[in-house]
Amino acid sequence: xxxxxxxxxxxxxxxxxxxxxxxxxxxxxxxxxxxxxxxxxxxxxxxxxxxxxxxxxxxxxxxxxxxxxxxxxxxxxxxxxxxxxxxxxxxxxxxxxxxxxxxxxxxxxxxxxxxxxxxxxxxxxxxxxxxxxxxxxxxxxxxxxxxxxxxxxxxxxxxxxxxxxxxxxxxxxxxxxxxxxxxxxxxxxxxxxxxxxxxxxxxxxxxxxxxxxxxxxxxxxxxxxxxxxxxxxxxxxxxxxxxxxxxx
Length: 248
Ligand code: NDP
Ligand code: 8X3
Fold this sequence. Notes:
This protein has one domain (4-232): Rossmann fold, CATH 3.40.50. The strands form 2 sheets. Strands 3-2-1-4-5-6-9 form a 7-stranded parallel beta sheet, sandwiched between helices. The chain is α/β, with parallel strands linked by helices and 248 residues long. It has 9 helices and 9 strands. 44% of the residues lie in helices and 16% in strands. NADPH dihydro-nicotinamide-adenine-dinucleotide phosphate binds at residues 9, 11-15, 33-35, 38, 56-58, 82-85, 106, 132, 134, 177, 179-180, 182-184, 187, 208. NADPH dihydro-nicotinamide-adenine-dinucleotide phosphate binds next to helix 1 and helix 7.
């Protein structure tokens, strides 16, 4: 039977690379995002294997209907909760509230609403949930309070969900990457191409394809194996240690 994956945020980066990889390997891919033109381009590229679905992760009514929709697709094997973004890396008190609200709404509220809506369809097929968390869930950095907080939520949500799903055969994994060159930093900096290029300059970041391969590996492990959390970084990214404020 053809397997079906629902990928949120398939219009760019890790989601788009995953859509290509799963479609190439014979899966039916339902890809979501706000940018319909990108979704249509992906459909042209991937053909019948790809079903585009314009969906804003902040539209809670639409997310609530996704369980019913997944029933109309004939079921669901894998939910890839990938859509997400970060606000500019500034101290909390200097950040714009609308942006913070958008990040929390997308990375947390939308993810929970969608997962809740489609879980019955995943249980029917003994499927899986793969959530994109981040190294930011574990390692704090300046300007990361809200982004890191949302990703820590995603990590813990994944672990607790495993408890709820005990006995169902449904697997849950939190994938926690470090730096991958996608549109992530472009979005974070409000479209500053130079800032994005500078962040990834001369350091061999991971690619969207690296992450898609990792997601594919997790998804295709034998059903008796569950990867709980998986943290990965480019070799050239490491840890900075504690900061100390000294008296003048
Ligand atoms: P990109 O910016 O390249 O892609 C983000 C995707 O999320 C886009 O398809 C975008 O679609 C979608 N998205 C954002 N907001 C919404 C929304 N409100 N409704 C629907 N879709 C939305 O980033 P990445 O591919 O890098 O990021 C994917 C995930 O990986 C994110 O959760 C990110 O936090 C996480 N991650 C990324 C890392 C990195 O270094 N790149 C490292 C660790 C984790 P559209 O704009 O069309 O709506
Ligand atoms: C983003 C990862 O390392 O760019 O989730 O902060 S990093």
